[in-house]
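Hey, can you fold this one?
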Amino acid sequence: MKRDRIRSGFSLIELLVVMALIASLIAFLMPAVQQAREAARRLQCRNNLRQIGLALHNYEGVHGCQPFSSLVITGVGNETGWAWGTMLLPFLDQSPLYLQLAPNGNNAPTVANNLSKTVLPFYLCPSDSSDHWNQQMGGHAKSNYVTMYGSNRDDSPKVGNGMFFFNSSVRDRDVTDGLSNTIAAGERSWDGALYPNMNEFTIGSAGSIWIANLQGNLNDVVSWCDPQGRNQRINGSHPNCFSSLHVGGCHFLFGDGSVHYLSENIDNNGSFCSLSTTGGGEIIGDY
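Sure. Predicted structure:
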């Protein structure tokens, strides 16, 4: 006599239960995966700033001073000038690009070209997923890092009291507050939007570019601390403030090459503005 084979398998209810369990596991694991990815992106961002810090140290060793934030040429191209990002290229293994650009003080590009659109990973924060070419600033290659002008931007639009301002030549020994107590550079994100009228009343994130300062307001490649604590603060509403897509703050490079994560809730006109100047003589507490 033939016996019918008994076929084993999952019932519909069992399949639905298994699928529900898998979905629950995914829901539990996804936040942890996202956190791990963001931790890796933050680590890469810190490493970028450390690399920039090493390049600044080597630049100072060769030239005897830090590079200018940007070279101001009055009356030429709305005060367009080469930025610190270009001057650091030979110290970031980009000598061929630097030689092709041949910055001589008066030939900074106002219109994006093949060279100015070169994407340089060490100038990009991986947490900022906006376009690699910053359309807010002429379509040149984006940078997520800007140097520190100081705390007197509103009072002195060209001569800052920080480490980097226009046509500056600050030496390490000029930083009397101490390099470990002075911010050299920090992050600035770009929200990917294009604003026709960029000014202090615009709410957004403008990002930066590495090649040159382009706009007449001289804010493209620097940021600063506003001691009045208005919209120019970490992750404030000013388009040119220090900002990032990390939660709650930004990474900052200090003059001694160290990198610190500063909270957006830091005492703005106290600790933050004290850290922004080279010779304020302040006693800086915890930050």
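The first strand starts at residue 81 and ends at 82. Let me know if you want another pass with a different chain boundary.
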